[in-house]
Predict the 3D structure of the following.
Amino acid sequence: MANEISYGDIKFKLEKGPYVGGQEIKGFVIIQISKEMNNSLLQITFEGNEKSFWREEIYSENGPTEYLDHGDSKSLAYVKKTIHKWENNIFPGTYTFSFSFILPQKLPSSFLFKAWKAKGLIKYYIRAEVISSTNQTILKKEKIEIVLPAQGCNGPFEVKTEASLRSCCILNRGICKLSISQQSDSYNPSEKIIITANINNSRSLLGTKALSGKLCYNMLLKSSDNTSMTFKKTLIKQKIPCVEPPKALNDNRSLIITLDLLEHKELLKTMHSYNGTFIDIYFYIKVKLQVKGFFLCSGGKPIVEYPVKIIPEPIFIVPNREECDDFERLDEGARLKDRENMINDQKENLGKDFLTENNEFGDKDGNFICNTCEFRGRANSEMTEIRF
């Protein structure tokens, strides 16, 4: 931070995200130099990392509780490019650079899981850095969001179970069948999961009470030292009454359970199905039929459990007219403003007339110094309009 305060500041102007792997990102870097710097490089870096962290409590009867931190990280992307090189010193002023680059393909979506003293994340950012030959530095990081492109989902599917009902683990109470069907195996945070349940207790000696469905997840954080931590939670639950006597239901009777993901949209926007090196999150649905009776054995209850994928909302890359106009204004505005200021600075600092008859940059004899640059500074500043 001391370097930023001493030598200047950097600002980004980026196209509106989120972005997908393989997409081109365009933007501007606006550098405000407050103190003269030695010959320097301007570098743009795109970086992405997967990280896990959790804190283990170690209790002791004879002393205070100790804490042991676990976690690891893995690089998902790292691209660095030199945008510009100043051969001479950089003088105080404002320097504007345009840039563009292509994101690497098949990047996992940005991700965030937070619990008590634990975190799992996938984070991407762009970093701009001006660093001189004597390690004078100005640094700025900008976080960006990456999402997966729209993907196809598997179609309708069905899951069945047949429970042999027993009480006291020895008394036979017949058989109850539970069949579950869904239209898809993948959902985004704006959708509803519609579960159709078919119940058949025509061979059961026990009546039914209710049908429940819930969406749960298992989050596994891992480390390269072979340690791990698991977090389990139920996100959404619905319970509907289903009070029927024994042998009253057959496969012609269907019940509908609706799990609305909008209830947790903000959470699921950044916490989706993912199987990585140090982060592994698994979503599943559990449907349970409650039957009447006492001392029922746990192994004989009609329960269906199956995986489901939570995916980021699909995005469609459509240029925003207002955003495009904004970039055009910034481009042209920087050109005109910097041209005017550079001429004034040159006159003030060097005592020369740098405006030729054609309104181009030049010395008093008409020799051009720079006719394509965008900067406000002294005459020995280099060209600052670089695209790659």
Remarks:
- The mean pLDDT is 78.
- DSSP finds three helices and 19 strands in the chain.
- The longest strand covers residues 66-85.
